[in-house]
Write a structure and sequence with these properties.
By secondary structure, the chain is an alpha/beta fold. It contains 15 helices and 20 strands. A hairpin with a 2-residue loop joins strand 12 and strand 13.
Length: about 575
């Protein structure tokens, strides 16, 4: 007899409910629940008769034990997790936290529980973004997870970076959503990312610019000494140029990948005729194709197709696809570039005939640092980054990219650009007739702290211009105050101050000077006063000289001879 039965019999209670185990005849033990009610008592109040039921509750016991074990495991998972974890209601109030979260934010468990919300640990704008995005995902019902990195404000006011992984589920008992947040401390990772970015900036300045100087010097030496070199010497110069180009391409790919992955790359979108982009790309890649014993063919649509894209980045995509097509084409074959419109997209095809894409390489062809096996593939050079960069650029522009390949036959790579919402391009103004003006040498102020590059540039431009080279902003200001210049060639990385500050001085003392920016980076300074920006590693010396002369010329430049072209 249990205590509950005794209390009922003695008149202390009217009802007895108790659970106990009973051994059955087959030797098994089962849980039973007894529910009894007193229906008759003596005058003294002692129970004389009880009426009740016996219910087998073994399965209920097992379910209850399983639930308790599950809840205990869940509690231990949260409590012992090495990352910050929290349970929250729909208003963001903490209803459960672990020691790792307390350590991360500096608050005690008693401070967080009950009176604090997630919003108390974040900036107002950050919590607003999280709330809006989670609310949208909850309403759409398409996803029950969300990830974002934001700074956590600790109790002492210090800040640490946290990677938030938030998921949610509907609590049927409370008839509301319950949110679970995992918060990983990524402060050290952010510091490493900053160190990596600083390293990239150093590489950009310390490696790209010298490479440009080396390439320019080799070109000048080859042009000026072509009739004096022996075949063996000429071959050595060609080897040096080829490897300088190859190293430049590798550096560009690595830096581009880092910038795209970190979201630092800038896209300058505009409404442009895709045919004009293709024409320019084919013209630029023609020497490369000829060098690989190929020809380029461009097939344009009958009507203009206006796309909304970044011209420079789209040309970079085409350059990657055309160069790959040339490298992996059979000799003396044609690489075809074709443009079509399919619904609301322009699609650009690059087609070649060659060995094709190996079957075992197709699944990873767009992965970073991915290259097909085989000595022939390795001999083509490259880092295995070009197609990965191509895909990321196309995706960022709202398009897609893919390929089809037949072994030993045709291979076609394609990518799409969204059609612009404008009906047509604004017609270009007619080129005005050339005026008869002073055609004497133009004066160029070259602000450049890399003295080797400055010397190569002066040699490359020859007698076509008078060049004054200065290595600092302060010397540039002095030169502007003491003379008039037609062109200011400005390297954005000069060390003594902001090169942008020099633009005001130019407008005050040399209002007619054309400003051309030079950068070792793929994201040059944008300013309406700049007529164009050039990237050193993507511009050879002949192109640089031609651009400067075209922008700053006093008269026709069609007969300009560029040394080293």
């Amino acid at each position: 007899m249990t205590q509950a039965d005794r209390d009922c019999i003695e008149g202390l209670t009217e009802r007895s409910t108790v659970e106990y185990r009973v051994r059955f005849g087959d030797g098994s033990w089962r849980w039973m629940r007894s529910d009894a009610v007193v229906v008759k008592r003596s005058r003294e109040g002692t129970a004389l008769r009880l009426v009740g039921t016996q219910t087998d509750v073994t399965d209920l016991h097992h379910s209850r034990n399983a639930l308790e074990a599950s809840e205990e495991r869940f509690r231990l998972v949260i409590e012992e997790a090495p990352v910050g974890m929290a349970l929250m209601d729909e208003r963001g109030r903490f209803i459960g936290v672990n020691d790792a979260l307390c350590k991360l934010c500096g608050y005690d468990r008693s401070e967080l529980m009950g009176r604090m919300r997630l919003a108390d640990l974040l900036e107002r704008e950050d919590i607003k973004v999280m709330y809006e995005q989670v609310s949208r995902l909850t309403a759409e019902g398409k996803s029950k997870t969300y990830q974002i990195d934001r700074q956590i404000i600790s109790k002492d006011g210090s800040r640490r970076w946290g990677l938030f992984n938030v998921s949610w589920t509907f609590d049927k008992n409370a008839q509301t959503n319950v949110y679970i947040a995992q918060i990983v401390d990524i402060t050290d990772q952010k510091k490493l990312d900053q160190i990596k970015s600083e390293f990239v900036a150093t590489v950009s300045h310390e490696l790209r610019t010298p490479l440009t100087s080396i390439k320019g010097a080799l070109g000048l030496f080859e042009a000026n000494s072509a009739d004096k070199m022996t075949p063996a010497s000429a071959r050595l110069i060609e080897i040096a140029k080829t490897n300088a180009d190859r190293l430049t391409a590798i550096v560009n790919d690595i830096l581009d990948l880092e910038k795209i992955s970190s979201g630092k790359i800038v896209f300058n979108y505009d409404n442009v005729d895709v045919a004009e982009i293709a024409k320019a790309s084919v013209d630029e890649m023609m020497p490369f194709a000829v060098g690989h014993r190929n020809t380029l063919s461009l097939q344009l649509p009958d009507d203009n197709i206006t796309v909304f894209a970044d011209v420079g980045r789209t040309k970079q995509v085409l350059a990657n696809l055309i160069s790959n097509a040339c490298k992996y084409s059979d000799p003396d074959t044609e690489v075809t570039i074709r443009i079509e419109r399919i619904k609301e997209e322009a699609i650009i095809f690059v087609q070649n005939t060659g060995p094709g894409v190996p079957e075992n390489f197709r699944q990873r062809i767009f992965q970073a640092f991915s290259q097909a096996d085989g000595s022939d593939t390795r001999s083509k050079g490259g880092t295995g980054l070009g197609l990965n960069i191509t895909r990321q650029i196309v995706w960022r522009q709202g398009g897609n990219v893919g390929f089809e390949s037949v072994p030993g036959g045709l291979t076609v790579f394609w990518f799409t650009c969204p059609i612009s919402k404008v009906d047509a391009l604004i017609p270009k103004a007619e080129t005005p007739a050339l005026r008869k003006v002073d055609t004497g040498p133009i004066r160029i102020l070259h602000v450049e702290d890399d003295l080797d590059f400055a010397e190569v540039f002066r040699s490359g431009i020859g007698e076509a211009a008078d060049v004054v080279s200065v290595p600092s902003i302060s010397e540039a200001r002095a030169a502007l105050a003491n003379g008039q210049f037609d062109v200011l060639l400005l390297d954005w990385s000069v060390p003594d101050g902001s090169a942008s500050d020099l633009l005001d001085a130019v407008r005050e003392s040399n209002s007619r000077a054309k400003i051309i920016g030079l950068s070792a980076d793929s994201t040059p300074v944008e300013d309406p006063r700049i007529v164009c920006n050039l990237i050193k590693s993507r511009t050879d010396m002949a192109q640089l000289v031609r651009t400067i002369m075209d922008k700053g010329a006093k008269g026709p430049v069609s007969n300009l001879r560029v040394i080293g072209n």
